[in-house]
Amino acid sequence: MEIKINEIPAELKKDPAKILEGTLGFGQIFCDRMFKTTYTPEKSWHDAHIGAYEPIVLDPAALVLHYAQEIFEGLKAYKQNDGTVAMFRPEMNAQRFNNSAKRLVMPEVPVEDQLKAFEMLVKELVDWIPTKEGYSLYIRPTMIATTPILGVQPSKEYLFYVICSPVAGYFAGGFKPVSITTSEEFVRAAVGGIGAAKTGGNYAASLMAAKVAKEQGFDQVVWLDANHHRYIEEMGGMNIMFVKGKKIFTCPLTGSILPGITRNSVFTLAPELGYSIEETMLDADQICKEIDSGEISEIFACGTAAVITAVGNFSHKGVNHQVADGQPGDVSKNLYNTLTGIQRGEIADKHGWVHRIEI
Ligand SMILES: *Cc1c(COP(=O)(O)O)cnc(C)c1O
């Protein structure tokens, strides 16, 4: 893929030094450049370029706006302690993007082309990468269906673009545990549906449950399986894990669950840190009993945005269950420190996860 770099108009340029001094939050500020490429059946992917971050013009009948033919990814670039820049396992995101593309009947973007786009864009945006502990540049690749037609069908034309946002660590104020609740009424995804694809539709399905949970004072929703409303699947947009001493348990990838790259990394790191890890069906009633008996010593969720989030309180069927003393446990902290240490280049990268970018 040939990627052109276009000059951007002075009025669209922003001053990253000034922006990085302010409060960043998560996904609220966008870099002044973006990557774009267009797909047509005749020309395949073409016109790849990095230009100004600016609004996209779409026909009001574009398929994405009506039938949600859309996929996305989320990964991060980190300033390393030695001043270089690296992305964490970007080829995994690129592969998962193509798996999502297949499920949504969209064209794939070759992994090496995606990596080239990320690398060139991050290189252009090097001054936008925050250096503070826990901070990073969040990269959001997105593909949308652009053909204007109201008959339900896969689009003929697509736009693939990548935007970036400098983000704060989730735990600027320390490693704060969250309070979560199962949803008895709403489900996120069913086996056979699109739960294993990273696509906006799953998030649209999640909004109502999240709203109800917030109103009840919870931070996040725990999704139960769509068949029985009984087995624990995910927490919000993260995978969830349960700890009993030195054993970690999580649900298997049944087809309705997003296969997280952080989840995958925890599977590799856990045994190296002296923990076993096992995939098993997690009955919510049983989990509650095991929290109350103290058998479950920790619960944590994992995903790119927050890396590891400790769960202090688990609510199910209207009853709150405090997890141990409600504070982050050693396994969560250990995994968090190890993962972020590798990402920042402080801990040896034994598995080739750190993808350095020549600046
Ligand atoms: C992205 C995502 C995750 C976490 O995946 P990572 O690759 O670890 O960031 C988990 N669940 C859902 C629903 C997601 O969209």
User: Based on DSSP secondary structure assignment, what is the total number of beta strands?
Assistant: 18
Work out the helix count: 8
CATH class designation of the largest domain: Alpha Beta
Could you name the CATH topology of the largest domain?
Answer: D-amino Acid Aminotransferase, Chain A, domain 2
- State mean pLDDT (0 to 100 scale): 96
Low-confidence spans: pLDDT under 50, at least 5 residues? none
Task: Supply the CATH superfamily name of the largest domain.
Answer: D-amino Acid Aminotransferase, subunit A, domain 2
Order of helices and strands: EHEEHEEEHHEEEHEEEEHEHEEEHE
Oligomeric state of the chains in view: single chain
Strand content: 25-35%
Please outline the major beta sheet: 9 strands, mixed
| Spatial separation of the terminal alpha carbons | 20 Å
Spell out which ligands are present: pyridoxal-5'-phosphate
Shape: globular
Category by helix and strand content = alpha+beta
CATH-scheme architecture of the largest domain: Alpha-Beta Barrel
Radius of gyration: 21 Å
Task: Give an account of the 3D structure.
- The protein is of the alpha+beta class and 359 residues long.
- The protein has 2 domains: 4-167, D-amino Acid Aminotransferase, Chain A, domain 1 (2-Layer Sandwich); 178-343, D-amino Acid Aminotransferase, subunit A, domain 2 (D-amino Acid Aminotransferase, Chain A, domain 2, Alpha-Beta Barrel).
- Helices cover 25% and strands 29% of the residues.
- It contains 8 helices and 18 strands.
- The strands form 2 sheets. Strands 1, 2, 3, 4, 5, 6, 7, 8 and 18 form a 9-stranded mixed beta sheet that branches. Strands 9-10-11-12-15-16 form a 6-stranded mixed β-barrel, surrounded by 4 helices.
- Strand 12 and strand 13 (247-250) form a beta hairpin.
- The longest helix has 16 residues, at 200-215.
- The protein is globular, with a radius of gyration of 21 Å.
- 40% of the residues are buried.
- The mean pLDDT is 96.
- Bound molecules: pyridoxal-5'-phosphate.
- The site of pyridoxal-5'-phosphate has 13 residues, from strand 12 and helix 6.
- Residues 74, 198, 234, 237-239, 258, 260-263, 303-304 line the site of pyridoxal-5'-phosphate (PLP).
